[in-house]
Amino acid sequence: MKQRIYIDTSVVGGNFDEEFSANTAPFFDRVKNGEVIILVSELLEAELLRAPNFVRELLAEIDDKNIEKVKLTEEAKELADRYIEAKVVGKTSKADCQHIAMATLNKADVLVSWNFKHIVNLDRIRGYNGINYQFGHNMIEIRTPKEIEKYGTEE
C-alpha cells in the first residue's frame, strides 16, 4: 500500500526555496511518479491563494490519482483547539494545529513540513501526540521531506 503523506504549505513553498529545494524536489518527484499519495487539505489550498502562481501550479502538475483531498471538519477544528488549550503552541498557530488535526484524523502515515517552530519540533510533537492519546486518536508521525527520502537498498 502506498504511503499517505499529509503536506502543509511549507512543503509546497520549500520546492522553490534555495534552502529546502534539494530535499523537497525529490519528494515531489516521488509524488509525481505515483510512489506516494499526498493529502492536500482545503486549508493548504486556501493558504496557497496568497502564493505566487508558479508555487500554486506545482500541485496542478500532479495527477489527481496521487492526491487525496481532505476537509477541515468540525472535529478537526475541535482537536486543533485542544492543542492550543493544552498550550502545545499559542493561539497564533491555529492553522498549524488544524494541519496536524487533519493529518491525525485522516490517519496520514506521516505529516511532512518544514515548519520547525510549530510543527517539526520534538517538544511540540510530544504535545500534539499527548493530546491525541488523551482523546483516543492515533499518534501522528511528523517529519521533514529530507527524513522521508527514499534511499537505495542496503546490502
Concise overview:
The chain is of the alpha/beta class and 155 residues long. It has seven helices and five strands.
Which spans have pLDDT < 50 for at least 5 consecutive residues? none
Structural class, judged by helices and strands? alpha/beta
Helix content: 40-55%
Using the coordinates shown, work out and report the CATH topology: Rossmann fold
Strand order of the largest sheet: 3-2-1-4-5
| Architecture (CATH level 2) name | 3-Layer(aba) Sandwich
What's the total number of strands?
A: 5
Number of helices: 7
Domain module tally? 1
Q: What this model shows, in words?
A:
By secondary structure, the protein is α/β, with parallel strands linked by helices. The protein has one domain: 3-Layer(aba) Sandwich (Rossmann fold), CATH 3.40.50. Helix content is 45%, strand content 13%. The protein contains 7 helices and 5 strands, in the order βααβααβααβαβ. A 5-stranded parallel sheet has the order 3-2-1-4-5, with helices on both faces. The chain is globular and about 40 Å long. The mean pLDDT is 95.
Give the topology:
Blueprint: E1 3-7, H1 9-14, H2 21-32, E2 36-41, H3 42-48, H4 53-60, E3 67-70, H5 74-85, H6 94-105, E4 110-112, H7 122-134, E5 142-143
Parallel strand pairs: 1-2, 1-4, 2-3, 4-5
Helix pairs in contact: 5-6
